[in-house]
Every structure is written in C-alpha cells, then in structure tokens.
Design brief:
By secondary structure, the protein is of the alpha/beta class. It is built from eleven helices and eight strands. It has an eight-stranded mixed sheet with strand order 3-2-1-4-5-8-6-7. Helix 9 links the parallel strand 4 and strand 5. Pathway: Cofactor biosynthesis; ubiquinone biosynthesis.
C-alpha cells in the first residue's frame, strides 16, 4: 500500500515536468550552463566539479571511489543512512527473477520458489558492499561480484565471512573493474546486474560494453539507475544530501544521471536489445519500494544480448 508520500511524489512530478517544458522553451538550460562555466556549482547537485584524472583508465574515477569508500562504515547498517539499499530487494530481485522467466532462462513456475535462481550464473558489476549479491545468492544463483573499490570489496568479503557464511559456496568477490573482468570472462554469464552504478561513472559506454561482452548469447542485462530529470534531481540529490542529510553531499550529480533511452541506444550498438523498462518508487515513510508505471525518477531496465 502506497503512503501519502506517493501523492506528494505525483504532484512534484507534475510540477517538475511543467518546469522542464518552460526551461526548454526559454532555453534556460543554456543560461544555467553558462553560469556553471563562470561561477562553478551555481545550481546545487547539477555538475560534478571535483578534479578528475588526466587519463582515467576505465569508467570510474579515483575521486568517485574515494567518496564512496566513506560509506563503508554504514553500508550494512539496516537502520542507518543506507537502509533504503536493504529494502531495495523488493524491486531489484523481482526485476531479475521475472526478467529471466520472461526469457525462458528459468521456469515461470519457479518464480516464487526459494531457490528460483538455482543454476543461474550472475555477475554483479559494481557490487559495492554486497547487499544485492547476497540477495541473489540466497535464491540459489552463483554470483560473482566485481567492484574497483577495494574497501567495498573488503567489506563484502567480511560480511560474507561473518554474517552470511552459508552463502560462501555460491558467492565470490573481486576488486576489479568489469572492463578488466571482461577480458578473461567474455560470454560467461547468464545474467549481469549493474545496479546503482551508472550514476557514479563518467563514461557509460565502456562499462555497458563490458557487461554485454561478459554475457552469453541470449543472456540478460539488468540496469537500475536514476533518470536524468528534475524529479530525480530533487528526490535523489536535494532531499537526501541537502535537506535530510543522511548521505554525504556529492554522492550524486544530475549530469551523471541517464535516461533509459540513452542506455538502450548504447546497448543497441553492441547487439543487446532492451526488452522492458520498469519504474520504481521509494516510499520514505515506510522504507519500502514498489513498481510504478512512470520511469521518470528511477527505473530498472532489462535487455537481452542477441
């Protein structure tokens, strides 16, 4: 059941859609860019002005990794700043399970079984501290988690060893980028999950191309991220970083958000066709997630490699 917060969400969505139309008609986006160029971060959370490497070797900058490493201390606290990650399974897991049933990789009759992903080999690209990787492994999948953040991988390994030892035979972690991983494991996986990663990388193409390369023909790629809209900017930057202040400022930037259409266009270049896009809604009152028709704020995308 959706709370009154959903009503506010709908109103905000309407207001921001109208605002975006006005901005487009008056070309105010050009004015904003000019102000950003002259004065730096003129609009909160718009652009990432942090220093970047002169020649980054892959899609994730060291600056970004250092920032995300600050979250290690509260990543597995289910009642802390990252609590929304721990209820995110309510949409992330069905996105994967139902998607694999739609392609025939698992039987539709097995969707509700506790081992619905038994025999499925999954790569999680950008696994962070291992929350989703454990969720998928609990359903019987063999999960390989990769992430270039060594502190995050160390955290994931510690949690597996001390709190989820029953999963050790079907879960492994490696401190490496998916681009590097793809060099040795092309065509290996039934499914790849790249969840809440796109909004942290400067270059989308290398990581998506590597994900597709790791898939078997007919394999599924699942991407979850924030759409590049004013509603997403307000919901995932202004509220959590500047109003409620429960995650560090500079965790997200509007310029790094990406629409499902942009992701689909990139995947098309690598013979990976988008099959479905599902909108998500996070209810802050009840710390719960649900699927909705609109993908205006954040979404899950399912694509299949030809």
């Amino acid at each position: 059941m959706l709370s009154p917060y959903y009503g506010l969400y709908l109103v905000l969505g309407l207001v921001f859609r109208v605002t975006e139309v006005i901005i487009g008609l008056l070309k105010l986006d050009l004015v904003a860019r000019a102000l950003e160029a002259k004065f730096g971060n003129f609009i909160i959370g718009l652009n990432d002005s942090r220093p970047k490497e002169d020649a980054p070797t892959d899609s994730v900058s060291k600056t970004e990794l250092d920032h995300l490493a600050k979250m290690v201390t509260f990543w597995w606290n289910k009642n802390g700043p990252a609590k929304m990650l721990h209820t995110f399974y309510q949409v992330r897991v069905p996105l994967v399970v139902e998607g694999l049933a739609e392609t025939g990789r698992i039987s539709k009759a097995d969707i509700s079984k506790p081992d619905s992903l038994k025999g499925v080999r999954i790569l999680e690209a950008g696994c962070g501290g291992g929350v989703l990787a454990e969720d998928l492994a609990r359903l019987g999948a063999y999960v390989v988690g990769v992430d270039p953040g060594t502190q995050m991988i160390d955290l994931a390994k510690r949690h597996l060893e001390t709190d989820s030892a029953d999963l050790k035979d079907r879960l492994e972690y490696h401190a490496i980028t998916v681009e590097e991983h793809a060099k040795k494991f092309a065509g290996t996986y039934d499914a790849i999950v790249c969840s809440e990663v796109m909004e942290h990388v400067d270059e989308k193409v290398p990581i998506l191309e590597a994900c597709v390369r790791c898939l078997k023909p007919g394999g599924s790629l699942f991407v979850t991220t924030e759409n590049q809209t004013m509603l997403a900017w307000f919901v995932f930057i202004i509220i959590p970083e500047y109003i409620l202040k429960f995650i560090p400022k500079g965790t997200h930037f509007y310029e790094k958000f990406v629409s499902p259409g942009q992701i689909s266009k990139i995947l098309d270049q690598y013979q990976c066709k988008t099959k479905r896009v599902r909108g998500f809604f996070y209810d802050r009152m009840f710390n719960s997630w649900s699927f909705i028709e609109s993908d205006e704020c954040n979404y899950g995308l399912h694509a299949v490699k030809k």
